[in-house]
Amino acid sequence: MRVGILGDGLTSLTLAKALVNLNINVEVYSEKKKQIIDQSRTIGITKSNLEFFSENIINIEKIIWKLNKIEINSQKLPREELIKFENNNDQLFSMVRNNKLYEILETNLKKNKFYKISYKKNLLSILDKHDLIINLNPLNLVSKKFFSNKIKKNYQSVAYTAHLKHNKIKNRTASQIFTKIGPLAFLPLSHTETSVVYSINKSNFIKKEKFIELINYHNSKYDIKEIIKISSFQLNSINLRSYYYKNILAFGDLIHKIHPLAGQGFNMTIRDIKILLKIIKNKIELGLPIDTSVNQEFQNKIKHTNFIFSNGIDFVYEFFNIDRKIKNNALIKSLKFLGKTESLNKIFKKIADKGLIY
Ligand SMILES: Cc1cc2nc3c(=O)[nH]c(=O)nc-3n(C[C@H](O)[C@H](O)[C@H](O)COP(=O)(O)OP(=O)(O)OC[C@H]3O[C@@H](n4cnc5c(N)ncnc54)[C@H](O)[C@@H]3O)c2cc1C
User: For residue 270, which atom of ligand 1 is closest to its CA?
Assistant: First the structure.
C-alpha cells in the first residue's frame, strides 16, 4: 500500500511517522527545499494525547515539559482566580517546542525504509500514483481545486508569540488572562523559560514595543531577563465542508483550524490520527483495500464531532469577546460560579483532554 502526503509541516511528519509504524509506504511531497519551523511556536499536548503519541507515533518524553495546573483569570477581576484546573499534582498537559518536535520526527523518518520525501511543483500529476493521498497544505493547487468549500471566520485578530527568559522559578502552572484587548497565555517550557501567546484584536493593533510593554504589565510571576523570538500570525477558523475528494483526504488544520486560545488545534489532529489509524488497521486486518472507503469512513466518524468541538472553541472566544465589551461583571462572575462547580470543572477537564468522544 502506498500513501502520498502533500506538505511537509508538523502534521505531515506526525502522520507519516504513524503510518510508517504500520509498515505502510509513505511518500511526503514538499514544495520547498527546506521547511522552516518557527522557533517561537509551542504546542500544549493533553495527557491522553501524549500517551497516544508516545505509544503509536514516537516517544517525545525527552522534549516535553509537564504542567499540572492551569489558571484562568480576567483583567476585570484582578486578584480573583476565575477558574483553575488541576490534577492532584499529576500532569494535565505538556508543552513542546514545534521545532524540536519537527526535528525528532524528521531525524527518525529519514532512517525509515518505508519513508521517502520528494520535491514536486506539479502535484496534480502524482494523484493516481498512490492508493491514498492525504493533503495538508491549504495553499497548494489540490486544495484550490478540490477543497475550497469551507466555513471560514476571520477573527480580525493577530496572535503574537514570544519566549521569556527569566530567573529560575517552580514553573509547572500555565496561566491565561482574558485582558481588555484579548487572551494572553503564559506557557512554561522549563524552570527558566516560558512561551507567551497574546491574541489581540486588530482594532487594538500594537507594535513590538507595545507588546513587550503589555507582557511586562500583565506578568506578575516571572523575573524576566529577556523577551526573544517574537512572531505574529493572523487568526481565523476554518471548517471544511467535505473532508475528501475521491482518494484524496484533507487533514490537519486544512479541515479544522481553530482559535489558539484553548490550545486544541494540534490536539484535534492527534485525535483524528487516532481514528484514521484505527480505520486503516481494521482494513489491513480484514484484507480490504485502502481506498476511498477509508476517507468516507473517516468523514462519517469524525466530521460532526470536529464541527461541534470547533464551534465550542468559537463560543469560548465569543463569550470573552462580549464580556470585554460590556462594562459590568455579571457574565464573568457567572463563569466564576460555574468554574467552581466541581462536576462542571471535571467535565471541562475531560473534554479538553480527550475531546468529545471518550
Ligand atoms: C499561536 C498558536 C498557538 C497554538 N497553540 C496550540 C497548542 O497549544 N496546542 C495545540 O494543540 N495546537 C495549537 N496550535 C495549533 C497548531 O500550532 C497547529 O495545528 C499546527 O502547528 C499545524 O501545523 P502544520 O505544520 O501541520 O500546519 P500548517 O502550518 O498549516 O502547514 C500545513 C502544510 O502546508 C504547507 N504550507 C503551509 N504554509 C505554506 C507556505 N507558505 N508555503 C508552502 N507550504 C506551506 C506546509 O508544508 C505544511 O505541510 C496553535 C496555533 C497557533 C497559531
Answer: 11
